[in-house]
Design brief:
Pfam families: KH_dom-like, MMR_HSR1
Strand content: 15-25%
Shape: globular
Radius of gyration: 24 Å
Protein name: GTPase Der
Bound molecules: guanosine-5'-diphosphate
Organism: Halalkalibacter oceani
Helix content: 25-40%
Function: GTPase that plays an essential role in the late steps of ribosome biogenesis.
Family: Belongs to the TRAFAC class TrmE-Era-EngA-EngB-Septin-like GTPase superfamily. EngA (Der) GTPase family.
Strand order of the largest sheet: 8-9-10-7-11-12-13
Distance between the termini: 37 Å
Oligomer: single chain
């Protein structure tokens, strides 16, 4: 259910991002194509021998002006905390440096599996010099060349050997999994406590009593929910406090395990770039999303404040135009009673199935109202539409020429679907496939 996480660590310039890009390949588009979301090389998806995994380039985390050794130590710590397997990259042309030894020591002390990649081994003769790297104490060095794409297969074979066993899903399929994400101090823990403290909420177990009890299952009005990784919210280390980017990494796993993501924003601070990035991951992962503006009590308000705040959010989160916004206060409990009903509603929308005949009638009407685009004398023809998946609702349009399905027309079709059916809170995916 949750994908394993692989982290790449190593000194600057050893080739981490080159290797990251090789492994992620075309999937690097994860957040780049999204309007309003900045490019980020931190995180991507990989696949090897049918095993999917998430991959983090710890070198993508900027740490300001910290000295090299401290930066490396922090990056290694993140890798140790977040990853199931660590790829440690060294430079085969330069040999072992003091910084390499330092990182090796840290990795060695952790109980995480580490695979050692010796990069820039561009030709086979160089493989003779590998034995030096045994002295790092990490095990067999794997010669690779990021720029030529050599040796990566053997390296990845070794990486996936160390993946944890796939775990069964502990919750039944009707349980709604909620991830609360947002930067430190926006009020996530306070919201959790306030929500769980609500009347008629039955918490099934006390989190944090065992190491593995990271989730908090509860029942409200007969619906089962689980708050994902609530322990992670409390267990923020120094690293997470100091470096905002790290809190993103923590969120990613929670997003993947969830159905509904509550993006918590601090009303006092307004929006910052990081909020957008995290929300972008949730969107990209196809999760239902609700924007929760917390600490609304602390904002000085007049009759336009809410509308202005909402407009600002809409402008900043263009890709989340479907997400409902709730203005709440964990402190005064203002409007908190709306959170779970909204979670339930967007979860239902996330699962919505449109009957095929209704779908096709709607699309044919839409096409009649706004004719399909043409290119070089050729017109897009939509022959048939079918919904192939839920969570999120995913539609395949069978057309004469998929390239003729322009973004703007696809947006039009999506809007028609949204006007007609209840898709609030859920992304919709649309694919065009060739079929005459
Ligand atoms: P990072 O700082 O560790 O992310 O390193 P980069 O991926 O940015 O690479 C640093 C430099 O090494 C770049 O100029 C790359 O083109 C180069 N490089 C990366 N991989 C290889 C390789 O396998 N062989 C050679 N010769 N150069 C490489
Ligand atoms: P987290 O780091 O996101 O889990 O945030 P916390 O729940 O630890 O809250 C951070 C700080 O914000 C604490 O001092 C809380 O008391 C305060 N806080 C949380 N929610 C609210 C709220 O709705 N209104 C106000 N005024 N303060 C809040």
């Amino acid at each position: 259910m949750t994908k394993p996480v692989v982290a790449i660590v190593g000194r600057p310039n050893v080739g981490k991002s080159t290797i990251f890009n090789r492994i992620v390949g075309e999937r690097v588009a994860i957040v780049e194509d999204m309007p309003g979301v900045t490019r980020d090389r931190l995180y991507g998806k990989g696949e090897w021998l049918n095993r999917e995994f998430n991959i983090i380039d710890t070198g993508g985390i900027e740490l300001g002006d910290e000295p090299l050794l401290i930066q490396m130590r922090e990056q290694a710590e993140v890798a140790i905390q977040e990853a199931d397997v660590i790829i440690f990259i060294v430079n085969g042309r330069e040999g072992i440096t003091a910084a390499d030894q330092e990182v090796a020591k840290l990795l060695f002390r952790s109980d995480k599996p580490v695979v050692l990649g010796v990069n820039k081994v561009d030709n086979p003769e160089m493989q003779q010099e590998l034995y030096e790297f045994y002295s790092l104490g990490i095990g067999d060095p794997f010669p690779i060349s990021g720029s030529h794409g050599l040796g990566l297969g053997d390296l990845l074979d070794e990486v996936i050997k160390h993946f944890p066993e796939e775990e069964g899903d502990p919750y039944n399929e009707n349980t709604i999994r909620i991830a609360l994400i947002g930067r430190p101090n926006v009020g996530k823990s306070s919201l959790v406590n306030a929500m769980l403290g609500e009347e008629r909420v039955i918490v099934s177990n006390i989190p944090g009593t065992t190491r593995d009890a990271i989730d908090t299952p509860f029942t409200k009005d007969g619906q089962e929910y689980v708050l994902i990784d609530t322990a992670g919210m409390r267990k923020r280390g120094k690293v997470y406090e100091n470096t905002e980017k790290y809190s993103v990494l923590r969120s990613l796993k929670a997003i993947e395990r969830s159905n509904v993501v509550l993006v918590v924003i601090n009303a006092e601070e307004g929006l910052i770039e990081q909020d957008k990035k995290i929300a972008g991951y949730a969107h990209e992962a196809g999760r239902a999303v609700i924007l929760v503006v917390n600490k609304w009590d602390a904002v000085e308000k007049d009759d336009k404040t809410m509308r202005n705040f909402e407009q600002k959010l809409r402008d900043e989160f263009l890709f989340l135009s479907y997400a409902p916004i709730l203005f709440v206060s964990a402190k005064t409990k203002q409007r908190l009673q709306h959170v779970l009903p909204m979670v339930k509603k967007v979860s239902e929308n996330h699962h919505l199935r449109v009957p095929t005949n209704v779908l096709n009638d709607l699309i044919m009407d839409a096409v009649a109202m706004n004719p399909t685009p043409t290119d070089k004398g050729k017109r897009l023809r939509i022959n048939y539409v079918t919904q192939v998946a839920v969570e999120p609702p995913t539609f395949v349009f069978f057309v004469n020429e998929p390239e003729l399905m322009h973004f703007s027309y696809q947006r039009y079709l999506e809007n028609r679907l949204r006007d007609t059916f209840e898709f609030e809170g859920t992304p919709i995916k649309i694919f065009a496939r060739k079929k005459n």
